[in-house]
């Protein structure tokens, strides 16, 4: 049976120039390199320059992804952008990228699922392709999380960073089996009852301010491994695959301990984990495409490989996706 598949045609990424090390962080709040490294695996994070916006980062990642895919902006039918830190409350950051790419056709919009945003955006894009509404789609994950942080709160400000990643999806054909190239399936979940464990204490219709990120870290941690593991099992089961079939595990980069505990629970090989949290921190919706691009660019992810993505974030939202490269 012939089916439409969304094949990854190119990836791109961009990190702001400025690096903030743990030692520098210890001058801002009462923390230490030892504490941050031991509890999270993070050594440094990139921070956007003054005036550098989320769409600035996303635009640079998008240009790189289009170049890798060999496509021009007007070949795109759609831009789906995952971000929690848009330049403006409206319009969507995706439309800034559309304008700057010089794309004068199609549509562009944002998806808001915080750290799970890239999985959500990828699923939306995949569905547009599967129903035949789009052929070439740019999926962007970009964030300036530094702008949402309370820089006096050591329990959150040490964890996050800024950055952007992008992938171009192209409609292709498959046989409806896990051997097909492209997105095999995505699995999305949310539970609004857990809002108070991870949220921003502001917004246009409440405080008329942007607000600051608040997190009950220990509680989030407990839910993370359970939810992420369930989402991974859903993806493997839906495709009749097992942990042994996974070549590369490219998770949302929140905390090294969460990634290692999840891999152990599922039985994923430790060497299959693509880990960037040490150098990037938690870049929310940008973390998966950033890690994915790194593993593609350095030759780890090769054609035919099975790539497993997962994320969890505020909402709660969580999800997984399996891609045959
Ligand atoms: O991407 C969205 C999803 N987010 C996540 O997945 C994050 C999940 N949570 C985590 O990654 C971890 O819970 C944290 C890294 C946030 C915290 O690690 P933890 O091992 O759960 O530490 P804790 O919150 O239990 O804090 C232990 C101690 C506390 O002191 P007391 O009460 O034991 O005296 C904190 O006050 O560490 C203290 N602490 C710090 N000390 C130095 C908290 N933050 C810091 C800090 N530097 N930055």
What does this structure look like?
There is one protein chain. With 325 residues, the chain is α/β, with parallel strands linked by helices. It folds into two domains: 3-174, 3-Layer(aba) Sandwich (Peroxisomal Thiolase, Chain A, domain 1), CATH 3.40.47; 182-324, Thiolase/Chalcone synthase (Peroxisomal Thiolase, Chain A, domain 1), CATH 3.40.47.10. It is 32% helix and 27% strand. The chain contains ten helices and 13 strands. It has helices at residues 22-25, 33-40, 54-69, 93-101, 117-130, 154-157, 217-238, 256-266, 277-280, 287-297; strands at 3-14, 18-21, 44-47, 78-82, 107-111, 136-144, 162-174, 182-190, 198-200, 213-215, 248-251, 306-313, 317-324. The strands form four sheets. It has a five-stranded mixed β-sheet with strand order 1-7-6-4-5, with helices on both faces. Strands 8-13-12-11 form a four-stranded mixed β-sheet, sandwiched between helices. The protein has a two-stranded antiparallel ribbon with strand order 2-3. A hairpin with a 3-residue loop joins strand 12 (306-313) and strand 13. Helix 3 (54-69) packs across helix 4 and helix 7 runs parallel beside helix 8 (256-266). The chain is globular and about 60 Å long. The two termini are 20 Å apart. It binds oxa(dethia)-CoA.
